[in-house]
Every structure is written in C-alpha cells, then in structure tokens.
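Section 4.2 – Deliverable D4.2 (structural model, holo form)

The reporting period included a commitment to supply a predicted holo structure for the target in complex with LXAUTJHC. Inputs used:
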Amino acid sequence: MNLISNETLQPFDFILFGGTGDLSIRKLIPSLYFRHCEGQLPEDSRIIATARSDMDTAGFRSMLNTDVREHIDDNDFNADSWKEFLDLVYYHPLDVTDPESYRPLVDTLAGREEYVRVFYLSVAPSLFTQITNGVHAAGLITEKSRVALEKPLGRDRASAEEINDRLSAVFNEDQIYRIDHYLGKETVQNLLALRFGNAFFEPLWRSERINDVQITIAEDLGVEGRGAFYDQTGALRDMVQNHLLQLLVILAMEPPVSIDPDAVRDEKIKVLRALKPLAGIDAIENSVRGQYKAGAYGTGPVPGYLDNDDIPNDSSTETFVAIRAEIGSWRWEGVPFFLRTGKRMESKTTEIVINFKKVPHSIFPTADGFSTPNQLIIRLQPEESIRMRIYVKAWGDDIQLQPVYLNLDFNDVFQKRKMIAYERLLMDVIRGNQTLFMRRDEVAAAWAWIDPIRAAWEQYQYLPKSYTAGTWGPGASNALISKDGLRWNED
Ligand SMILES: NC(=O)C1=CN([C@@H]2O[C@H](COP(=O)(O)OP(=O)(O)OC[C@H]3O[C@@H](n4cnc5c(N)ncnc54)[C@H](OP(=O)(O)O)[C@@H]3O)[C@@H](O)[C@H]2O)C=CC1
Ligand SMILES: O=C1O[C@H](COP(=O)(O)O)[C@@H](O)[C@H](O)[C@H]1O
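Output (structure tokens):
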C-alpha cells in the first residue's frame, strides 16, 4: 500500500489562513519544512501565510526563526535547508472578516492560475464560511484550487452542514479536504495494513473472538494557551467526534474493495451509521464527563482547568470523556467499544486495545487465572508499536502459564525520523489524494451520533466530575467499564 510517495509535486501556492496560530507554528510549518528537506517541494512553490497580526514577510520569517525553530529537533535541523525553506514563505496581514483585506492576496496570486492552489484553514471553525466567501468573492478559486479545513468542522451537525453547504456552493467535493490529523499518523495507516495486508487477523476480527475494544487518547498537557477556544468546544467535540471515532471506524470497518478514497470512505461511513445511538438516559448511563483540577506530575504541580485566566471560573466544559459504544452489525454485535480521552491525564498515551475472548475451557493453571486474555495493543503514542499478549509455559518443572508480549516497536524496525502526521496530509492535499480525508457524509454521520449525547448531558444537567491532574480521570470512568466486568488497560 503506497499512500504517500516522494513523487515530485506540481508547483503550488499554499495559502495558510491562521499562519501565526498554534497549529501552524507547532505542526504545519515544521511539516512543510521537513517535506522541503526531502526535496518534495518544487521550486517556484510558495507558502503564503496570513493572519491579522500586522507584520511583513521579513517579520514573519524572523518570527518563524524563533517560534517554529523550537519545534524542530536539533538532530533534524539543517541550517541551509531552513534558509532555503524560508525563501518560499511569504506573509500578508489579512482579516478574513473584511472582504477588502483579500486584495493583496489577489495581487500575489495573479498570473499563477495554472499552479495548484491550496487554501488551508487553520483557524476557528466559526471563520470557515467567511473565508470561503472571501476567497470566492475575490475570484481566487481556480480549477486547480483545493480547500483544507481543520477539525472540528462546526459545533454540531447543523453548523457542519451549514459550512459544508457553503463549501459545496463554491468548491466541488473533490476539492474539499476535511482534515483529521489522526489519519496521517503512521500507526493508524498501519492498522489498515495490519488488517488488510495479513490474512490471519480476519477470522479473529469479530464478536465470536473479540470480547471488547478500548481506545484511549490520553494527554498529559492541559489546555495551555487555547483556553478560549477549548472552553467553547470541550473534549466531546474536540476529540471524540473526530479522532476517536476515526480510530474506531478504521478498526471496525469491513474490507474495502481497494485503497481508492471512496472505496475506503464508503466502508468507514457504514460503521458510523451502524453505531447504536446513545440518547437520553442511555447516553447518561454510557458516558462519563470529567474536568481536571490542580494536581502534580513528577515535574511539579500544575493548575486546574478553572485556574486558566481565559476560562470562566464556573465553566462546566468537559476535559475528559469516556463512552461505552456498540456497533449494530453482524461482525460486532455485543462487543462493547470503550472510548476515552482526556487532558492532564497520567501520561500521553494513545492506544487501541483489543481484548480477545478467554479460552473456552482452561486445562492449565495460570498465575493470573486468565483474568486478562489475549490482547492486541496498537500503540500510537508516545512510541508506535504493536504488542500481542499471549500465554506461554513459564520455564520450570511444573506447567504454569504466564502472559508475555510479542513486541513490534516501529522505531527499531524503521530507524528513521518519524514523520509528523501533517507531512503526509499536506502532501496529499497538494497531490490531490483524498483517501485520508473525511467525506461530507462521514462528518455528518459522526455529528449525528455525537449530538444526542451532548443533548442528553444538557437535558439531565450532567455536569463533569472532577479529577486530579496527573491521574487517569474520574473514578466514574472505572465504574463505567467495570459494569461489563472489565478494567481499562493502564499497563
Ligand atoms: N492547536 C492544535 O493542536 C490543533 C488545532 N486544530 C484546529 O486548528 C484550527 C486552528 O487552531 P489553533 O492554531 O490552535 O488556533 P489559534 O487560536 O492558535 O490560531 C488561530 C489563528 O487564526 C488567526 N485569526 C483569528 N481570527 C482571525 C481573523 N479574523 N482573520 C484572520 N486571521 C484570524 C490568528 O491570528 P491573528 O490573531 O493574528 O489574526 C491565528 O493565526 C482550529 O480549527 C483548531 O480546532 C486541530 C488540531 C490540533
Ligand atoms: O485535534 C487535537 O489534537 C490534539 C492532540 O493531538 P496529538 O496528535 O498530540 O495526539 C489535542 O491536544 C487538541 O486539543 C485537539 O484539538
């Protein structure tokens, strides 16, 4: 499967809205730099950053010299390549809400209609429609234009549809790239490779063999400088609607007939539609909301969510969510899928744990009584690995079984710099491959499952339970999973 190659791209203009923002500085610009180092950015391509901040190109480049540089590891930095890269970068101050301010962009892009043109919207979703209107009214959309939008797309299904309607009025669906950067992570694509490149998993990948699935995206960071955005969003919209559901659908989908974008997306959407709705009291019984309070890590104390200056001190926004979901299909009937995400949790850990059923009848004594059956653990962060827990006979003159791990660590296997998820996605936007992007109906189906959960939280005034920063979330999350006689994998 070759979802990305170092093929030469056509020259492009990459217009980065939100060029001074957190995501641009930490991920997008470093990703473009790394692709330049790989020789992938054609000469005569340009990265044109915009934001309201008043500075010129020289000022922006010098800002990148300090702010972006600190997000590039010294071992991966090459001063000559960096200098060449900066020569590709330009800046225009632009307030996206002011139609007049698109004028300099019009001048800059004039005469380059034959180039691939990417409008990358790294701004709050509330500005997506304004930018779409702005570039349309300024006559900037060409045949070779593409628009890439950050998640979350909207705040709910209705607002997502509104944005999508506006986008569809001026772009064709094959020009629209809805980003979920989890799809750019190597291990997520490896999940596809694992499932559909190896025949032996398929007979096991079903309710007859799988007991439960746990997907955790735990972060040790808090909301940092993004409090104002985050408080309007919360973990359900920020992480569950997109990243967690994307991991779930890739894990649960039927084999697509090919790796073509629509073949893959057709299968993904079937899973989203098969998710059993969680509404009303069902949503309350099958979900947990949490909000972190002050706590500590090895490095010292950290403040609570409400201690942030840009967050109202009576905020009831959740920074943690756990959900018990089920998929109504032949393959998955009866298998609980536990989803969990949170900020300021014990460690940065992203993993998918597949717990297989116990042996039907045990003939061996085991140290743990087979309490934890065979497990497949696909770890995305901090390290990327695939581990399989199996039972073997412990050495000795008795027959005692003991669990051990078959361990595949991708760092050992590949021994090269791990790409930032965005590197792949940005190149795919430029080359025009939509496989790793969400189609409109996928986004709508994800919101259709999420909205009733949020509505139930409001209806029942289901407030977040507090948890101490540096822990695995509120106790209610353990209670949720223990109803099925299970516990979270926290090894
Ligand atoms: N940060 C992250 O880790 C992630 C973010 N995202 C998504 O990416 C998007 C951007 O997030 P993030 O970078 O964190 O946000 P930031 O708040 O850090 O950045 C927002 C950017 O938008 C610009 N901006 C705001 N208002 C206007 C305006 N009226 N006209 C022009 N530019 C404007 C700001 O610059 P200025 O104030 O100078 O105008 C800034 O460059 C969001 O949709 C978010 O959900 C997705 C995944 C991860
Ligand atoms: O989309 C988002 O993702 C990040 C976590 O991404 P990761 O690649 O570091 O796992 C999260 O911090 C942020 O709140 C959210 O918007």
